[in-house]
Amino acid sequence: MVEYRYAPRALAADYARAAVGVTLTAAPLVLLEIGQGVTAVLVALTVTFVVYAIRTAYRGTIRVSVDEQGIATRGVRRTRLPWRDITGMRLKYYSTKRDGQGGWMQLHLSGPDKILRFESSLDGFADLARRGYAAMQSRGIALDPATADNLRLLGVRVPGAS
User: Fold this and answer.
1) Which of 68, 91, 132, 133 would disulfide-bridge 147, Cβ 3.0–4.6 Å?
2) Domain for residue 46, yes or no?
3) DSSP one-letter string for 91-140
4) 114, 1, 11, 109: which is closest to 62 by C-alpha?
5) Which of helix, strand or coil describes residue 12?
6) What gap in Å lies between CA 154 and CA 158, rounded to an integer?
């Protein structure tokens, strides 16, 4: 069994982004007299950054265990998805620049009654994607073209991917 977790460095960067966001959006609310419209926008943005910080804290608690039988997560919730029960897989790439450089990936592994989601800042993300693809192949389930292309970007040999 192999265990993965989100990289502390990536979590620290996400906490820093959340802190800067909360500071920049909440400070004007406290320090300035502003109109209702601007106040509403700043409150909404502050709440967004607080939720982002909470989501980052949640990811920090997650431990992902992978073995030959399946994948399990521990943290606030415990979940197990046997490889034999996988019904779908999506691998999405989100670019942060126009030229397609920079960004992150998100992996969705589906089972009969659950969807597990992982971001590429998870240590072992590429291994998890490879194992998910192997499970899909063993069950004869086809991938969508975008997932196949994104697997190729991770170095996985996928027949028919461009």
Assistant:
1) 91
2) yes
3) EEEEESSTTS-SEEEEEEEE-SS-EEEEETTBTTHHHHHHHHHHHHHHHT
4) 11
5) helix
6) 11
Residue 10 belongs to a domain: yes
- Over 90: is that where the pLDDT of 22 sits? yes
The angle formed by the CA atoms of residues 63, 107 and 132, to the nearest 5 degrees, is: 85
What tokens does 11 get? 């979590």
Check whether residue 88 and residue 143 sit in a common domain: yes
User: What pLDDT band is residue 62 in, cutting at 50, 70 and 90?
Assistant: very high
90 sits in the region (left: phi over 0; alpha: psi -120 to 50; else beta) called: beta
Find the mean pLDDT for residues 90-114: 87
Strand ranges of the sheet holding 63-66, from the earlier edge strand across to the other edge: 2-5, 63-66, 70-74, 79-82
Q: What is the mean pLDDT of the chain?
A: 91
| CA separation for the pair 108, 98 (Å, rounded) | 24
Residue 158's pLDDT band (cuts 50, 70, 90)? confident
DSSP symbol at 84? G
